[in-house]
Amino acid sequence: MNTAIILILGIPLIEIYLFIKVGSQIGALNTILLIITTAVVGIWYARYEGFNTLRSGMSQLVKNEVPLYEIVSGAAITFAALLLIIPGFATDIIGILLIFPITRRIILNKYSKKYPSKKKTEEKNFIEGEYEDIEDKDGR
Fold first, then answer.
1. Are 76 and 104 in contact (CB under 8 A)?
2. In which band, very low, low, confident or very high, does the pLDDT at 121 lie, cut at 50, 70 and 90?
């Protein structure tokens, strides 16, 4: 099956199952309050981490360095905030893992090893040299 179809069908089913299980243990009102609390605290912390990432990226730009990790980290924080807004326990767990810098770095390093960097492939096809414009005798 296609991965997108599995995710579209699987995530709501997992969330409904977890809502039923947690709701039967702590009660319906407590479950709703827990979901709201994780969303509010998660969004607040995502904002805090987002500003830290922005500050770190700006300092790298001042040093004339490319803030590649900060760009990817900012995208991960945005995705984590989206997961925390969506009601559910499974999405909250994934969102919380992406918000904390330690687990975010582990997750990003794991997935970045799967993709080769463009810099290495460009260096293989690079030929250094000098050139000089030569004009014909006609002045062209």
1. yes
2. very low
